[in-house]
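Chapter summary example: a protein plus adenosine-5'-diphosphate.
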Amino acid sequence: MENLYKSILIYGPPGAGKGTISQVLSLSESVFHLSTGALFRSIDPNSEKGKMIKSYIDKGNLLPDGLTVDLWHEYVEDQIKLKKFKKEQYLLLDGIPRTLKQAVLLEKYIQVEYIIVLQIEDTDKLIARLKNRAKIEGRMDDLDETILKKRMDIYLQDTTKLLKHYPQSKIFNFNADQKKLEVIKDVLMKFASI
Ligand code: ADP
């Protein structure tokens, strides 16, 4: 138990604002933010590993669970060696676990303390936000509407199952269909003192 990294999980459909909320929470010295999407995109796309990862991402598919957890674990260990992540910090996990299998595989490494869920059902609004981000960040997987809808469907299916796996007392739901600062305010009302 003592060797497990205490973790905060953050969920929300693509475009819900996980990145924004995670950035805000990482202003706290006791939080280390880890986004699997960012982690996978940071792997050299010309390497064999990078090409394989890109083939999943570009189709809107999830990477295989075992591979995902292995890459994640390798990265966490690197961050510890580099002294970027300190074991007494909370790991803020954005994008993982995404499936029940990943949740089970991660139990070897993490102790889930809190789960933040950003709720927004307005798909058109999400798509508009993502297309805007695609222009700014050059994320091709955010441009194609069919792929975006597929990611949203996968999110709904997987997350619904996943959240049942955890004690309801650890889950905090927030309305993400508000202005950015309003969502931030709501989240900080609960987590400012972390
Ligand atoms: P979003 O949450 O907006 O769909 P992310 O940036 O978190 O986007 O992830 C982008 C892509 O990276 C996903 O569509 C998927 O292909 C891959 N990915 C990220 N996290 C995971 C994960 N835990 N398991 C499998 N694939 C993942």
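Key point: The first strand starts at residue 5 and ends at 11.
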